[in-house]
Structures are given as structure tokens and as C-alpha cells.
């Protein structure tokens, strides 16, 4: 009996380790949209923000998303390459924070890659400095 419980527990852990960002975001959105009477327009905006995040992380395993190399680069790309506004990027980042927070609560990840992000104003200053050097 103990061996069976161990095997089932290990299987659940393996399934947790394989969850993708896209799957986690869908699960989070389902819970988010059904609590506290969220407005339809708010849920629509969150779906749009998740779409931007899925461009970068959709099929990546949650546990493989790193702070510096992946998350920071994705947010920087949204600002520099896609030229999204600071307000839009702030919303995308806020949505990511909520998704990663839920993943932390469910023990799917141990570190939130969205913590300590350099956002818009700092990115813009860095971008201008690099253009001046060229």
C-alpha cells in the first residue's frame, strides 16, 4: 500500500513539473474570472495580456522560466521591439505576477521569475544609452 501511495504521489509531482505556462495561465484565468464578480472587460484585458505572455512562454514548462534570461528579456522585447506602452507592459507584468503567484501557492514553482523586474522607465533609459553608444 505504501509503495502505491509513493508511486501515485511521484506521478502527481511529475505531472506538476510538466505543466506549461499556457496551461497555468488558462487555469488561473478560469479561477480569476469566476471570483469577486470580475467585469467582462477586465477578463478580456487579462486574456489579451496572457496572449502576449504566451508568445514568449506558452509551451515552456513553468519550472524552466528564469528571471533574468527569459522573463526580463520578454518584457524588454515588448517595450523595445513591439513598442508597447508602459501602461500595457505594466498590465502584462501584473497579470504574469498573479499567474506566478498562483503557481507558487500550488508548489509548481519555488521562485517567482517576475519579482525584481526592471520595467519600462529603466528599460527606456538603458535603450537610449545603448543607441547613443552605437
TrEMBL record:
It comes from the Bacteria. PROSITE patterns: CB. GO terms for molecular function: DNA binding. Gene3D superfamilies: 1.10.150.130. Residues 19-104 form the Core-binding (CB) domain. It holds the Pfam family Phage_int_SAM_3. Keywords: DNA-binding. This is Core-binding (CB) domain-containing protein. It comes from Bacillus safensis.
